[in-house]
Specification:
The chain is an alpha+beta fold and 311 residues long. It is 62% helix and 21% strand. The chain is built from 9 helices and 8 strands. The strands form 3 sheets. It has a 3-stranded antiparallel beta sheet. A hairpin with a 5-residue loop joins strand 6 and strand 7. Helix 3 crosses helix 5 and helix 8 packs antiparallel against helix 9.
Length: 311
């Protein structure tokens, strides 16, 4: 009997402690009601409650949460049915408003998202819808912000995951996309061929220009070299003539300084002729007038006269 009483006491104490002491984890908060009326919030850490009088209505997770909106079939402005998948990222910033402002804020967020999505897509054509994910997400977020502000919920981000048109339209779009890609490939190929031809022509042009410039430069250098060679040759000849003239001038000057006149020179010349005429096969013919002229030179005249007599 004593053991039963002790067990009951332990259970009562355990229940009393569990109802009195509340430990709240980080990034979580509890809404406490006292006698059915909002009393306070339980913050992270150790909290003490009055058993039976105080009651934790709900615990909220203050971290960013995500809610998937089921795929919705909506009709575009040009009467095409498309299926859109959306995901919402939200955060509870007012636990009291999130508890008493709406019964289920996640459900409310999904419904507002669906309704807003239908309104937005109904004003857009298919092509605009397929390429306007960012606009759709932005418009849905604006609509959700206006509605969820009083619920203590802040919408962090809205993402349109997928937009699926009907299969026949998707097939037509695939064919159109393939045709566009083929067209783009043909255009790019033609553009590449055009660029190739332009580059080849430009290269050929540059090559010819460089070759012509090279030939021109070579001819100029060749002509310049020939001109310089001719100038040097003429200069050499002029210097040679000048040297010969200077030598002749010097020789005459030396002869004059030695006192040699024309008669002495004639005598030396005929001495040389005499030596030449000593050969058995050599004969020297001297004009008579020359002998007369030389006759005026004493012994020379006698020499030539004796030779003439021997003949």
């Amino acid at each position: 009997m004593d053991l039963v009483i002790i067990a009951v006491i332990i259970i009562v104490v355990f229940m009393f402690i569990s109802l009195t002491v509340k430990i709240v984890p980080q990034q979580r908060v509890g809404v406490v009601e006292r006698l059915g009326k909002f009393h306070r919030l339980l913050t992270p850490g150790l909290n003490i409650l009055i058993p039976v009088i105080d009651k934790v209505r709900i615990n909220h997770d203050l971290r960013i949460q995500q809610a998937n909106v089921p795929p919705q079939t909506v009709i575009t402005k040009d009467n095409v049915q498309v299926q859109i998948d959306t995901i919402i990222f939200y955060q509870v910033v007012g636990p009291e408003q999130a508890t008493y402002g709406i019964s289920d804020y996640v459900y409310g967020v999904r419904n507002i998202t669906t309704a807003t999505m239908r309104q937005i897509i109904g004003k857009m054509e298919l092509d605009e819808t397929l390429s306007g994910r960012e606009k759709i997400s932005s418009d849905i977020r604006i609509a959700l912000d206006e509605a969820t502000e009083k619920w203590g919920v802040r919408i962090e981000r809205v993402e349109v995951i997928d937009i699926k048109p009907p299969l026949d339209i998707q097939d037509a779009m695939d064919k159109q996309m393939k045709a566009e890609r083929n067209k783009r490939a043909i255009v790019l190929e033609a553009e590449a061929a055009k660029q190739d031809m332009i580059l080849r022509a430009e290269g050929d042009k540059q090559s010819k220009i460089l070759k012509a410039e090279g030939d021109k430069e070579a001819r100029i250098r060749e002509a310049e070299g020939l001109r310089q060679a001719q100038e040097l040759e003429a200069l050499g000849e002029a210097k040679a003539i000048e040297a010969v003239a200077e030598a002749e001038k010097a020789r005459i000057q030396l002869l004059r300084e030695a006192g040699l006149d024309e008669q002495v020179l004639a005598y030396r010349s005929f001495e040389a002729l005499t030596e030449v005429s000593k050969g058995p096969a050599n004969k020297v013919f001297i004009p008579s007038n020359a002998i007369e002229t030389l006759g005026s030179i004493g012994a020379i005249g006698e020499m030539f006269k004796s030779k003439e007599g021997k003949k």
